[in-house]
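Exam revision sheet. Question 4 asks you to relate a sequence to its structure. Input first:
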Amino acid sequence: MQLKRHSILILLVFTTLMLCCKHQEKDAKITAVDPIDVTTKTKENNPVIRHIRTADPSAHVWKDGKVWMYTSHDREDAVNYDTMDGYRAFSSTDMVNWTDHGDVLHSKAISWGASGWMWAPTAIYKNDKYYLIYPHSVKGTKDDMRCGVAVSDVPEGPFKDLGWIKGVEGKWLDPCVFTDTNGKVYLYWGVRTPKVALLKDNLLELAEAPKLIAYGNDNFFEASYMHTYNGKYYFSYNAGLGGFYGIGDSPYGPFDYKGAINPKQRQDHHSIINYKNQQYFFYHVQDWNGGTKYRRNICIEYLYYNEDGTIKEIYATQDGVERLQN
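Answer key, structure tokens:
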């Protein structure tokens, strides 16, 4: 009789554990896939993301016709950059209302890296897959960063880490990946000294030795970015006191220095897209609602070109951009 009771007790414990596990699996699945609509409720549309702190926007228009934005994540209690522990994905069809798809890659899922240290990401679509390319610390310092690569079948992730790009390491890196019209993919990176190299198709190896970028000035600090307009290549970056740029005829340069894009924005880490025949400029600010340089929020402005192809200077506004009518 006692043995029977003991067996029943074991069965009950086992059943309870199984139910708990199933419940946890269900909750994890909901957390991973259920998006959250984030709606701006005032006439002032900047910042566009307000429910959490985000920075370093990498904006893209994927084949689904939506604008997708991959960001780093600042903690509300952050006093440095060490605690940035993951990337998030947001999507929109009207540039004002955004859907938060949650964490798409977290430092705990990267076997070769330290906890935290998930700094500015970049992204591309290639071979019917979506890739995040990102800087991450191996040992937990800004001097031992690697350029990681992660992949997903869908833009909202989650992304699976594939390792890092061999030959790209050093001080915090700030990578930007750019796909040219001929399908070739280039990686830009560096701090104080910008570099560029062609990537192999697997995105995990350089196809050539890195080249230094000549851009007609000596004020480069970080955050390389590349886009094209009317057949010209625009190399832009953060100079520490705002965003600056040059124009060239090749993804390698040399680039003819043209001056500032947004000279008043101290922490400029930007990206640029063309969506429904309008150019948009994504960046982050550190002065909204108690923000600091460690607690930032993403904003968007219109971007316009002059007749000679130069960019009209951009100044941060609270109004931001207007909602597009779908």
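Marking note for examiners. Residues 2-33 form the longest helix (32 residues).
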